[in-house]
Design goal:
Bound molecules: protoporphyrin IX containing FE
Mean pLDDT: 90
CATH architecture: Orthogonal Bundle
Distance between the termini: 95 Å
Low-confidence stretches: none
CATH class: Mainly Alpha
Number of domains: 1
Helix content: 55-70%
Radius of gyration: 25 Å
Number of strands: 14
Strand order of the largest sheet: 1-2-10-7-3
CATH superfamily: Cytochrome P450
Structural class: alpha+beta
Number of helices: 20
Strand content: 5-15%
Length: 519
């Protein structure tokens, strides 16, 4: 009897082992081979599949090479530095190509109609699954799909309405005042000019803006939370360069442990702020005038209207949304500001035109109200051109869930699609021979005239999942730039090295040392 039982256990064990071995083999070899055949049959080209790694080793090498070579200061053709492997793949295989992201193929999508289609049909094209490590960083709306995404978007939308953002202007103004005062102090210590690396200041500014606007009076705690999240982000960047196997990116154990510790601390801190806020709101002691308050208010309304808790967010979900505000809104906006300042340093004529406009609308001091910010036409053109040449997010990614028809292509499930914002924004066939030159006049009659209604300019994404914070970001950036222009002229320092690099967003590798002159 015992012998039979032991045979049975061994037999079951062998079957389980065989199933896992088959799954592994299918994931690492058979499935990629099938996808490869299917894509090639439709005219797409790419390198032959290499077991498990695909093109990842070459990809990582090309990033290292690109990182080691700064550009000429006047070179705005930055795609080879930001998406080096994509640029090489296009040179080798043409625009209709794919890249092996490990065992998954990633097809480049260039055509304006196809990009619109992918971004609009959000139920067909999902975001690729987050890895457990990026999940620790932040989940929230940007990682949800279908009904859950729709429910969260409905609850979040009111908090980002322009009228609500108007209430946050004084908080943004306060943060900008702090920053320009520090610059004024630095200049006055040296006389009338000084050299300053503005990059860390702009990062601090956008971090403070999010802390203040998200957490209102609890912003000091918010700042601590975001500092911890910044540390986490550094580990995630490290992990993103390693191989991803079935749900895991590999990080040294010590780092993994630290990520989990931070996650626990951050959750406890946000939970504390939420509890305080809910108590104060219930007691009528505070208005819902910060992002968290508005989000909680909108959540209560939704639950009350349906009389059902399932139509609202849980506290855990609210925590995730708060974490996401920081990741989605901080670095993206500081990157927009830093490249705009670098471009204006190199183009003093546009800097002068922008200043003239700011002084005309606001004078050299005074309150910067929303109406005035909305009237800044030259400044808006400059920001659009900076977003075109230096999009903070270089590419969007989606994945087919089932067999899907995209234009002429029949795509099987499990194919990744990359919409390379940076490459489309620099495409000569779309923008002309001067595509990589700074010419804000392209946007003199607005975005839809500049793009002829095509999906060729999409720094904030598009379709129903378009960036929820785009108005917030543009208002913040306009306020900051207007206050800088009111007080200083600026130029590149001789020590500036032009080296845009992709670190989740497009960042200046060696900072942005500028020479500031007090006006
Ligand atoms: C210049 C600044 C910004 C840029 C260039 C930018 C860019 C983007 C892009 C390209 C997407 C779409 C991602 C995709 O479809 O895969 C996105 C989504 C998102 N952004 Fe922004 N963003 C900026 C500022 C902000 C700010 C300030 C916030 C919030 C405070 C924010 C919150 C979000 C959220 C929550 C999503 C996800 C929306 C959804 O999935 O429904 N962003 N952003």
């Amino acid at each position: 009897m015992e012998i039979v039982a032991s045979y049975l256990v061994s037999f079951l064990f062998a079957i389980i082992l065989a199933i896992y071995a088959w799954r592994l083999l299918d994931w690492a070899w058979f499935r990629p081979r099938k996808l490869d055949k299917c894509l090639r049959k439709q005219g797409l080209k790419g390198n032959s599949y290499k077991l498990i790694f695909g093109d990842l080793k070459e990809l990582s090498k090309s990033f290292e090479v690109a990182k080691s070579k700064p550009l000429n200061v006047s070179d705005d053709d930055i795609s080879p530095k930001i998406l080096p492997y994509f640029v090489e793949a296009i040179k080798k295989h043409g625009k209709n190509c794919f890249i092996w992201f490990g065992p998954k193929p990633m097809v480049l999508v260039w055509d304006s109609e196809a990009i619109r289609d992918v971004l609009n049909k959000y139920a067909l094209y999902h975001k690729p699954d987050s890895t457990p490590i990026t999940k620790l960083l932040a989940q929230g709306i940007s990682s949800y799909e279908e009904d859950k995404w729709a429910m969260h978007r409905k609850i979040l939308n009111p908090a980002f309405h322009v009228e609500k953002i108007k209430n946050m202007l004084s908080a943004v103004h306060l943060c900008c005042t702090e920053m320009v005062s520090q610059w004024e102090e630095a200049v006055s210590m040296k006389g009338t000019s000084c050299e300053l690396d503005v990059w860390p200041y702009l990062q601090r500014l956008t971090s403070d803006v999010i802390s203040r606007t998200a957490f209102g009076s609890n912003y000091e705690e918010g700042r601590k939370i975001f500092e911890l999240q910044k540390e986490q982000a550094e580990y995630v960047i490290e992990a993103s360069r390693t191989l991803y196997i079935r749900g895991w990116r590999f990080l040294p154990t010590k780092r993994n442990r630290r990520m989990k510790e931070i996650d626990k601390d951050v959750q406890a801190m946000i939970r504390g702020i939420i509890d305080k806020k809910v108590k104060a709101m219930k007691a009528g002691e505070t208005n819902a005038d910060d992002l968290l308050g508005m989000l909680l208010e909108s959540n209560f309304t939704e639950i009350e209207q349906h009389g059902n808790q399932d139509f609202g967010m849980t506290t855990r979900e609210v925590i995730e949304e708060c974490k996401l505000f920081y990741f989605a809104g901080q670095e993206t906006t500081s990157v927009l500001l830093v490249w705009t300042m670098i471009l204006l340093s190199r183009h003093p004529d546009w800097q002068a035109r922008a200043r003239e406009e700011v002084l005309q609308v606001f004078g050299d001091d005074g309150t910067l109200e929303l109406d005035g910010l909305n009237r800044l036409k030259i400044v808006t053109m400059i920001f659009h051109e900076a977003l075109r040449l230096y999009p903070p997010i270089e590419a969007l990614c989606r994945m087919t869930k089932t067999k899907t028809k995209l234009g002429e292509l029949n795509l099987p499930a499990g194919v990744m699609l990359s919409m390379p914002i940076m490459l489309v924004h620099h495409d000569k066939e779309i923008w002309g021979e001067d595509a990589s030159e700074f010419k804000p006049e392209r946007f003199s009659e607005g975005v839809s005239k500049a793009t002829k209604g095509q999906m060729t300019f999409f720094p904030f994404g598009g379709g129903p999942r378009i960036c929820i914070g785009q108005n917030f970001a543009m208002i913040e950036a306009k306020m900051a730039l207007a206050m800088i222009l009111q007080r200083f002229t600026f130029e590149l320092s001789p020590s500036y090295t032009h080296a845009p690099q992709p670190v989740i967003t497009t960042q200046p590798q060696y900072g942005a040392p500028l020479v500031l002159h007090r006006l």
